Structures are given as C-alpha cells and as structure tokens.
What does this fold into?
Amino acid sequence: MEGLRLRVTLASSNNWEQWISSVKIIARVLGIWKYIDPDQPNTSRPEKPVVPSLKEIDQSDKELLHSRFQAELMVYEAKLWDWDDYQESYQKL
It folds into this structure.
C-alpha cells in the first residue's frame, strides 16, 4: 500500500468535506476507518493485546493446560498482528 498519501490539506472548514472524503478513502483501504470515523460515537483505538500467562489457566491437567495455552497464544498472535497492522496503517494515514 505504498503511495497512499493524503493529497488534500485541511486549511479551513471550507474544505472539510473534501479533506474528510480523502481521509475516509485512505483509512478504508488501510482498514482503520472504524477507529477514526468522526460520525461514530465512542470510536477508540484498539488496545494492544496482553500476552497470556500460565497463571491465568487452571493447572490441574498439564496436557489440557498446554493445549489451552497454545490456543490462547494463537489468539494473542492474531490480535497482535491486527494491532501491529493498525499501528502501521495509522502511521501511513
């Protein structure tokens, strides 16, 4: 997605519509519009995920514990990838 640059500068309220339209197009391409849409109430940035800990899992069954931890780790890695992608896309915008 190299080359995505905002070509309109917000100089005053007179060019708001043109500027926000440009921002919206780029943000949608980058997949971050849902986080910055000014028309949506309570838009917030995603939180960086927390690495799962063995302390959070019942340790009664070691095999189950290992499987569950592996599953939690996969979820964490997917969330971290999404979070990193958001951070990179936000910087490009």
Notes: The helical segments are 16-30, 33-36, 62-92. The chain has three helices and no strands.
